[in-house]
Design a protein that fits this description.
Layout (H helix, E strand, L loop, with lengths): L1 E6 L2 E7 L6 H18 L7 H6 L10 H16 L7 E2 L2 E2 L2 H18 L5 E5 L2 E5 L8 E7 L2 E11 L2 E7 L20 E8 L2 H13 L4 H6 L5 E6 L4 E3 L11
Antiparallel strand pairs: 1-2, 2-5, 3-4, 5-6, 6-9, 7-8, 9-10, 10-11, 11-12
Helix pairs in contact: 1-4, 4-5
Length: about 250
């Protein structure tokens, strides 16, 4: 059972490969993703994060999920030597880890209902569990940042997360966490495979801000792999990345 919906300005895909799949389960997962967008979107003036930025709501009075995200953001800031920071020019933007957290929680909802084989994708970030309807690992394509119609690598994944940071879809939307100047980077695309999508997402955002050093940083993390494409079209990847690549 598979459904695709437009939410958060991007396509969201949920697929359950178990024979017991029910549409209600997919609906509930989408409702959770919609709640996350309504709560954390910096583009919605009445979202909870917008009210915090507008000084209409104190963080101490914010919801438990909001306080959880702020705690996770601070942990990530420390884990990345400050290359991940949700505070920029006096405003908070936790989108660099909220999407991964949301996908992971939507996946947890499916697990709690007994599903073992499913795929959750929001805006290109993915959590995959078990196998697809054909009994094979789930397949994920890495797009060519110079030609969005072209797939440069096809990954076979199961029980892990895949997140991509880059400028080729949304333009320059990742700011420089080390200062007020716009982020200057030679990297166009950085795809990270991690133990789950939350971990992959938060470290992909930070590593992208590190410029060419990002892929090396990912290589120091146990259980993570990365594939990076720069402005010259040169691909760099971690030592264990190729074991996820579909061999044609």
């Amino acid at each position: 059972m598979k459904q695709t919906r437009l939410m958060m300005g991007r396509l969201q895909l949920l697929e359950i490969a178990d024979a017991s799949a029910r549409e209600e389960s997919i609906d509930d997962a989408f409702l959770f993703l919609e709640y996350v967008d309504d709560t954390f979107s910096t583009y919605k003036p009445d979202s909870e994060i917008s009210r915090i930025n507008q000084k209409r709501l104190e963080l101490s009075q914010a919801s438990a999920p909001m306080q959880t995200i702020f705690a996770m953001a601070e942990e990530t800031r420390q884990d990345t030597d400050g290359y991940f920071d949700i505070l920029h020019k006096g405003h908070y933007d936790p989108s660099g880890l909220v999407k991964g957290w949301a996908i992971l929680n939507a996946a947890a909802m499916l697990r709690e209902r007994g599903y073992r084989n499913f795929y959750v994708e929001a805006g290109g970030d993915i959590e995959a569990a078990g196998v697809n309807a054909q009994g094979e690992k789930w397949r994920v394509g890495i797009r060519n940042p110079f030609n969005m119609r072209e797939i440069v690598k096809v990954l076979e994944i199961s029980d892990c997360g895949v997140a991509t940071s880059g400028t080729y879809v949304r333009g320059q939307h990742i700011y420089n966490p080390k200062g007020d100047a716009p982020l200057q980077t030679s990297v166009l695309s950085l795809t990270v495979i991690g133990p789950n999508i939350y971990e992959a997402d938060r470290f992909a955002t930070a590593a992208f801000a590190m410029d060419e050093r990002g892929v090396s940083f990912i290589g120091t993390l146990e259980g993570f792999e990365a594939y990076q494409i720069d402005q010259a079209g040169v691909a760099t990847f971690t030592d264990g990345f190729e074991r996820y690549v579909l061999q044609s």
